[in-house]
Protein 1
Amino acid sequence: RVKTSSCGTEALRMAASHEPPDLIMLDVMMPDVDGYEVCRRLREGESTSGIPVIFLTGLISAADERRGLELGAIDYLAKPINPPLVLARTRNHLLTKVLRDRDYERLRALDHEKERLEIEQLKTERLLLNILPSRIADRLKRGEKDIAADYPDASILFCDIVGFTEMATALPAKRVVQLLNGLFSRLDERAERLGLEKIKTIGDAWMAAAGLPIPRSDHAELCADMALGMFEDLRAFNRAEALDLQIRIGISTGPVTSGIVGHTKFAYDVWGHTVNTASRMESTSKPGRIQVSAATAQAIEERFRLEPHGEVHTKGVGPVHTFWLLARR
């Protein structure tokens, strides 16, 4: 389809319309704006800069032709015209534009797909960081397998909601999940602020570690501060939900083994005598109390107030000298 204009101003308006031309054949000598100026404005316009322009003019000097090509025209044909030549040039330039437009659309589609893949990759990375420590996630992304490490000195904290199992039997499933998520989210935020690594939740129990995967000397103090702060979080949660839940906490310090288990539904976990002892410190603790092993007490006694609790016999671990953690000094 061919459209014509009688002057440069009209040509510019038509080129900038919602249905721009695929190619413009442009004279130089026109009544208002000459062809050179029209070509210059076309090249400057964001929506018209890609429209191919062929000059078809009676100006035949080399300087005129050079000027037209420098302004961005793709061809320069002098009058009198040779119709077969003009048609051949027009077909070639239209075909070139069609192919260029197809390439452009393919590139746009590729860019869109690349952007979509990058978004999905970001989502995957965020999910990894929600599940795994950042250092472990980086190793996993690099293709490492059988990720494991021994830590000669770390601290493990267990927390359990007292009587929650019995209470949950009388509640709808959605309410149970809502309550657990509400309290555990507060604990997660505190752990992140202090620098503990939340390991997992087990039913209505919450578990964290300090001193791994990045070793640090104050791991026992971090767990002690975390434990004391958890009661603040519980009080705020109880006020918000009009409840009177209680928790008990256990902490132990010593050597720990950690690593990734699973290849599809993988998880970062910790094992060893210290982990088992921390679990027993929690299960033999009392509501509203924090029970710590002798190793933890020794590591924090200069900065925290402790009360001896005597020897506690624990399943699978044996007798453990324990202390109640009361407050910071």
Note: DSSP finds ten helices and eleven strands in the chain.
Protein 2
Amino acid sequence: MKANDFQAWLKTTPEYQTLVFQHGERLFVQRDGEFEILTVRLAYRAWSKQQVNIDQLNNMEACYIEKKKQVEACSALVGQWREK
């Protein structure tokens, strides 16, 4: 699935048409789990690293949101305690 996501992304770039012109149907051919065309292989590796960073940021954001909710709940309890 990850390779399919990469291919979909690459097709949205301005360079895609040039790559198709240069390599034709071979553009996304894979051998031994890697893209045969060096340019595509390098782009895939860079894209994959970017995806790892995006996943990490999304996890950090989810953690931040959860912690923020916990802090807000604690603040509400402190506010209630002070009112008594």
Note: The mean pLDDT is 92.
Protein 3
Amino acid sequence: MSKKPLEGIRVLDFTNALAGPYCSMMLGNMGAEVIKVEKPGTGDDSRGYGPFVNGQSGYFVSVNHGKKSVVCNTKDPEGVEMFKDLVKHVDIVVENLKAGAMNRMGLGYEELKKVNPKLIYVAISGFGQTGPYAPRPAYDMVVQAMGGVMSITGEPGGKPVRVGASIGDIIAGIFGAFGAVTALYKRAITGEGDMVDVGMLDCQLAILENAIIKYSATGVVAGPLGAVHPTVTPFQAFETKDNYVIAACGNNRLYAAFCNALGCPELIDDPRFDTNMHRNQNLKLIGDLLTEKTRTKTTAEWLKILEEAGVPSTAINTVDKLFTDPQVAARNMLIEVDQPGMGKLQITAMAQKLTRTKSCPRKGAPLLGEDNAAIYGEMLDFDEAKLTELKEK
């Protein structure tokens, strides 16, 4: 098995909750050594998030597996100096505090690059390091709402609906990891470090592909459509005899195959529906006509028919079904870690696959301060007496 691509890269993870930890988790999954720096007593806030097993947070494990943990009180001058000394030995720092918070502690990029000029500094915050909103705090739901995602999610005329996964945090973490490896590549060429500035609000705009261009080109403000695509038709959830089936017809060939499979070939060349533009203009009508057909069979029956017809389709899986799905298993998307005190847990693996780099189970998440002696002893030459002194302090 080939070495993982980021082996030899060391990350100082000064993050909390989800966006920052997700970023450093991605780097760790590709081989980087990730040292999580946590506040004394409670550590990362997500250690207090459920679900819990024997008093430990499964949430924390899900985004902090494979990392090491040290405790450092950065509100104390000695802790600030310890942090700076650690920075001398790492390639990347990841933090997700409010903009300006690291500067106030004396740990901002301008200060840290003095002790490590080749440092890559990834700052993930609600609104980035510049602009009138920069000092504001933010969480996932705040940026989902502010960034327009909630305005196009849910049923028409319904109450506001948050996207079920924390995409405000997770997408910012993904952009942070992408920025980090981009800066690493640049450093390999120029020898220079850099700062990566990721705003969660920016990331929400970056994924609004249809809604942004729709308003820019036509002046139409997108709204929620439920389980219907705004510009591709038919591309939605259809009622069946017992549930729903998803069918996605991204071109005329697939639309024709769908109509033939449903037993309504007369709709293929109907001038109201013969092109995607016409179908989209008659979105409700074509949806109603097709639903009359899909209601006549069960979801399982339709899935067999549509698969044979080559139409992209699926049932709506509940999460438990993912644990027995053969495609999920074939792609090794659920891997097992043995978490001390919790037992064996299944967590998600890397979504990106490198042909010569196989994903494999990693160790679980660290206990708070589990690696104090090893990290501070190796990197800062602290002896047992010094470690005892710091612990007591």
Note: The mean pLDDT is 95.
Protein 4
Amino acid sequence: LVLRATAGARSTDEQVRALALGEINDFAIWKVHSRSDTEVLLEDIQSNRTLSWLSTAHGLQFGSVVRPVRNRRGQLVLGPVFDALLSAHKLYSRALLAGAARRV
């Protein structure tokens, strides 16, 4: 729902199943960066700065990361947009994982 509202990205349960089975490599706003039998690493298709990791190796696990960029002083930073959205992203990630766990 969040991705549909903010990025216009639609996804279905069938697409999730196909992604899990390795039948598709593009899903909502992500593309598969790498995968194994129990893990998949997804990279966003817009900026390639965010990655989401999903695993079933030890129960259901989820992680995400934002690749930093160098500012004018050469320091690695997330940037103002990512800094502003970090708290909301944490809430969204927890809700996403909780919803997925309920459906498993």
Note: Residues 29 and 44 are 6 Å apart (CA to CA).
